[in-house]
Design goal:
This protein is mainly alpha-helical. The protein is built from six helices and no strands.
């Protein structure tokens, strides 16, 4: 969070904070919620919901990009807004076990590679390359699992 703040990627700071909070929430669900929650299975997202979520990502990008462009000294506000907004969308899709979440993560993580190299945050760029590879693997694995469970 400190590195992204110093690099003026303010929305990334918020995104990392979100990841910390959602991590505790996930931990709670895994530890306490198993008794009351039914197990989610991998599914494909409906076209309608996908378009709504992608539209929400676009609105995040435009709205937050404009806000941070106008009222802060953010370095690259629209790229920061894009990666943050679509990371939130991808996280939601992943939590719902929609297969297509991995495709969105591949795009977002690949863009993060460029953003972080541009900001001379080489460690984060390399980490994002690793995340992109993991997303490709995640998609392949989930697709196989989905296809084997679908008659």
């Amino acid at each position: 969070m400190i590195v992204t703040w110093e690099s003026k990627l303010y929305l990334d700071v918020g995104l990392f904070g979100y990841y910390v909070l959602i991590g505790f929430y996930g931990w709670y669900l895994w530890r306490k919620g198993k008794q009351v929650q039914k197990t989610l299975t991998i599914s494909q997202i409906s076209v309608k919901l996908l378009l709504m979520l992608l539209g929400l990502g676009v609105l995040f990008t435009i709205g937050l990009g404009q806000l941070f462009s106008s009222y802060t000294d953010a370095s690259i506000p629209y790229w920061d807004a894009f990666t943050t907004g679509f990371s939130l969308v991808a996280t939601y899709m992943q939590a719902k076990k929609f297969l297509e979440n991995w495709l969105l993560w591949i795009v977002v993580d690949a863009i993060y590679v460029g953003v972080y190299f541009y900001k001379d945050l080489d460690f984060f760029a390399i980490l994002s390359i690793f995340y992109t590879i993991m997303a490709v693997y995640g998609f392949i694995h989930w697709r196989k699992t989905y296809q084997s469970a679908t008659p």
